[in-house]
Write a structure and sequence with these properties.
The chain has 345 residues and is of the alpha+beta class. Helix content is 52%, strand content 17%. Helix 1 packs parallel to helix 7.
C-alpha cells in the first residue's frame, strides 16, 4: 500500500476512533483476522490478534452499556478525552509501519490525533447538549449511541474496502463538525461546570446576586437591576446557548451576554408580554422557562438554565415572575404544579 493510500485510510479511521475507539479496533481487527478485506496492510495483523480483539470487545460492551444512560455517558467521554486520540495515533502508527518513510508516520500520527480529538469533542458536546435539552432520557441517549456505533463501524469498514470513498465521507463529516463545534464545546463545558456546581451545592448555595460587569451594565444605562444571576440561555434568537446574566430591570426581563468575548449584547422582553413562567428542577440544574409574546404577538419561549449551586437564585427569579411549579412538596425532576405547556410551533 502506498504512502498516499495509507494516509487516506488514516483519516476516516481517526474520525471513527474519536467516536468509538473500541468499535473501530473491532471492525478493523475482525476484517483482518477473517480476511474480509483483500490486500489489507500486513501491519494491521496486530489488531486482528485474539488478545486485542478480546480486550476491544470487552471495552466495547462496557461502552455500549454506559453510553445509554444520562450523565454516565458524559463521565465516560471525559475519561476518554485522551484515550481516544491516543488510540487513533496508535492505529495510525501501526497502519504506516513498514512504509519506510518516517515522515509518513509522523504526518499520520499528527492527523490522527487532531481528527480524533475533533470528533471526540463533537460527540462529547452533543451528548452534553442532549442530556440537558432532551426531555426523553434515556431514549435520546440510546438513539445517539446506536447512531454513533453505526457510523463508527460502517465508516471503518468502508475505509478498509474503499479508503478514498471513506475519506470523502470523513471530510464531509468533519466540515459539519467544525461548523457546530464551538456551540457543542460550550455545552460540554457548561455540563462539566454543572457537575462541579452540584457537588459544591452539597455544602452551600449562592444566594447573593451575580452582578454583571461594567461593559454589560452599560447596556442597562448603569441602572442597578433588582435581580441578576448568571445562567445559560436557550431558545432565544441570536443568543441561544450563550451564558450571561438574566436580570430584572424596571418592568423588563433582560439577558446580558458577550458575543465572541468582546461584543456586549442584550435581549429583553417587557413584563406585560410574559404569558406564563415555569420553574422545573432536575438533577444537575434548575430551569426557568418563560412563555411570552414577541413584537408580532407570536408565542415564544425563553429558557434559562441555572446550575444547582444557584438554585436559590432560580427560585427567586421564579417567585419574582410568579412562576408555576416552584419547588415545594413535589419530587425533584418534575414540575410541582402541572406539566410544562406544549412548545409553540
Amino acid at each position: 500500500m502506498g504512502a498516499l493510500q495509507t494516509l487516506v485510510m488514516t483519516l476516516p479511521l481517526s474520525l471513527t476512533a474519536g467516536l468509538n475507539l473500541y468499535a473501530t479496533v473491532l471492525v478493523v481487527g475482525l476484517a483482518v483476522r477473517y480476511g474480509w478485506v483483500e490486500n489489507a496492510p500486513q501491519s494491521l495483523d496486530v489488531l486482528g490478534s485474539l488478545p486485542v480483539l478480546i480486550v476491544a470487545g470487552v471495552m466495547y460492551l462496557i461502552e455500549f452499556i454506559v453510553d445509554k444512560f444520562q450523565f454516565f455517558d458524559n463521565a465516560w467521554d471525559l475519561i476518554h478525552t485522551l484515550i481516544r486520540p491516543l488510540g487513533a495515533i496508535a492505529i495510525a502508527v501501526i497502519l504506516t509501519y513498514g512504509e519506510g518513510e518516517p515522515a509518513v508516520t509522523v504526518i499520520a500520527a499528527l492527523m490522527a490525533g487532531s481528527v480524533s480529538f475533533v470528533s471526540h469533542s463533537a460527540k462529547a458536546g452533543t451528548r452534553a447538549f442532549v442530556n440537558v435539552v432532551s426531555p426523553h432520557e434515556n431514549l435520546s441517549n440510546t438513539g445517539l449511541s446506536m447512531t454513533e456505533d453505526f457510523v463508527a463501524g460502517g465508516l471503518a469498514a468502508l475505509a478498509m474496502i474503499h479508503p478514498y470513498a471513506a475519506a470523502v465521507v470523513a471530510v464531509v463529516i468533519l466540515v459539519f463538525i467544525v461548523l457546530f463545534l464551538p456551540k457543542l464545546l460550550r455545552w460540554g463545558w457548561f455540563v462539566f461546570k454543572a457537575v462541579l456546581s452540584r457537588i459544591r451545592a452539597f455544602w452551600r448555595q449562592r444566594k447573593d446576586h451575580d452582578l454583571p460587569p461594567p461593559e454589560l451594565m452599560a447596556l442597562l444605562g448603569h441602572r442597578p437591576p433588582t435581580f441578576s444571576a448568571w445562567a445559560k440561555a436557550q431558545k432565544i434568537p441570536l443568543c441561544a446557548g450563550r451564558s450571561g446574566y438574566v436580570c430584572i430591570v424596571d418592568d423588563r426581563l433582560v439577558f446580558l451576554y458577550c458575543k465572541w468575548l468582546f461584543f456586549p449584547r442584550s435581549w429583553q422582553v417587557a413584563r406585560d408580554r410574559i404569558q406564563a413562567p415555569y420553574l422545573q428542577r432536575s438533577r444537575l440544574m434548575d430551569k426557568v422557562e418563560v412563555h411570552y409574546l414577541d413584537a408580532r404577538n407570536k408565542a415564544r419561549v425563553a429558557r434559562f438554565l441555572f446550575t444547582r449551586y444557584r438554585s436559590p437564585l432560580a427560585e427567586e427569579l421564579g417567585r419574582r415572575l410568579k412562576a408555576h411549579g416552584l419547588p415545594g412538596a413535589g419530587a425533584e425532576g418534575r414540575v410541582i404544579e402541572g406539566h410544562l405547556p406544549p412548545q409553540p410551533a
